[in-house]
Amino acid sequence: MNIPENLLYSKEHEWLSREGDVVTIGITYHAQHELGDVVFVELPKIGQSLSAEDAFGSLESVKAVSEAFTPVAGEVTEVNESLLDAPDKVNEDPYGEGWIIRLRLQDPSQLDDLMSPEDYLKYTQEESQG
Amino acid sequence: MSLKRTSLNQLHQQSNGRMVDFAGWEMPIHYGSTLREHLAVRESVGIFDVSHMGEIEIIGKDALSLAQKITSNDISKLKDGQAQYSAFLYPEGTFVDDIVLYRINSEHIFMCVNAANREKDFQWVRQHQEGEVEILDQGDAYAQLAIQGPQAETVLQELTNVDLSAIQTYWFSRGEIDGVASLISRTGYTGEDGFEIYIPPNTAPPIWEKLLSVGEPFEITPAGLAARNTLRLEMAYSLYGHEIDQTTNPWEANLAWIVKMGKSDFIGKEALARLKIVGPDRRLVGFEMVDRGIARDHYPVWIEGKKVSEVTSGSPAPSLGKHVGLAYLPIRHAEVEQLLEVEVRGKRLKAKVVSTPFYKKEVSRVDSPGHLG
Known about the structure:
The complex is a heterodimer of chains A (130) and B (373).
Chain A: E1 8-9, E2 14-19, E3 22-27, H1 29-35, E4 38-42, E5 49-50, E6 55-61, E7 65-69, E8 74-79, H2 82-85, H3 89-92, E9 101-105, H4 117-129
Antiparallel strand pairs in A: 1-2, 2-3, 3-9, 4-6, 5-8, 6-7, 8-9
Chain B: H1 9-14, E1 18-22, E2 25-30, H2 34-43, E3 46-49, E4 54-59, H3 63-70, E5 82-89, E6 95-105, E7 108-113, H4 118-127, E8 134-137, E9 143-148, H5 152-157, E10 172-177, E11 180-185, E12 194-199, H6 204-214, E13 221-222, H7 225-234, H8 269-278, E14 282-289, E15 300-303, E16 306-317, E17 322-330, E18 339-344, E19 347-354
Parallel strand pairs in B: 3-13
Antiparallel strand pairs in B: 1-2, 3-9, 4-7, 4-8, 5-6, 6-7, 9-12, 10-11, 11-12, 14-17, 14-19, 15-16, 15-18, 16-17, 18-19
């Protein structure tokens, strides 16, 4: 299981990293593995404002469509347009070049609801047993 | 209800197979990468566990005449050792199932049927039983492996003394694989050359492992049901429950070639004769997406502002770098270049009808288009 130490995690298997009031969001190694090859990515518009738990885009594998959810509210400041031509970056480098969007945080206290790497590891283990 | 498992279940888990419920069976959907598995089959070789498929055998003096009555294709010219793509039809002319029928000899017919239809098919065959025959549901007696791809013959030949090069497409042989009595058939559902083998379930794990080992120089890979689906979709092969079912008939499904109206009476013949005179009001076509987006099963299909049908199967086509699908269109629109729209999560995206198969091989020894889901 690949769960970097310096990130926060959501129950929907997104990761977040914070720099000032901007967060970068992607999906975890576990999520991309469950999904399989990502072959198509739909991204939100820059400037769009999202509430916590909104779907901000979709990731499609050969077999299925999955929505990606933001665990925190904010305004989209950047989207990873390189994924439109190279969606496989989500599989190859989920925590790096496979990042999906950046948001300007509306309420930084929402980050408190997210999981630490240790909690997320436990969460995925419990989920796969359930 | 707990899922049924094939004898290869543990090996799939060990190979990192992602297991899903398919027709009541716990089956591998992929082993990490559908794209890699798909391309391995097109370019070299892959193996599929398709042990969930059902087998029904008809044994006895009247096996041929019963089989002739319950299937739409003509078995009168089949020789011992020959196989045929065919269908069971209802009296209404619609599909009970599509099948591959094997003539073992004049008193022994072996049929491979879809997993989801196994029980229904067995009951249906029994319901029409006549003459001196025994009808057996042999689904638990066989594991089925599909070895598919241009290197399939080379790899499988390592495990058998049967001269595989002598088996023509849609013929089969009975012989030993790794010392195990097998039915070895040059058939498949991928559009590639390859074999399907029927063996006792307890012998499948060692044979599977040996295939992986002798196939190593060819980078053989286990391939899951998702790759099986994209491979068959690129060939526009029908899948029961998608393109064909109890509401569709062979005329509209482009399967007229497995219906032989000239043969003696068979179930569905009368209805098909009537339907043929009237002519179908819709036909199955292949389309590719023009706008950026992927069509998926059941997405609505629109033409000229009207919803006309649904996508029966839709997916990326990894060998083409396009997104494709199949759908029934009203007959006047069922022509190549016809524009249509596929409703993708609320947005109508442009697509156009193209000729099928989507995937056209440069050179192929697979000349028979009949294959079974």
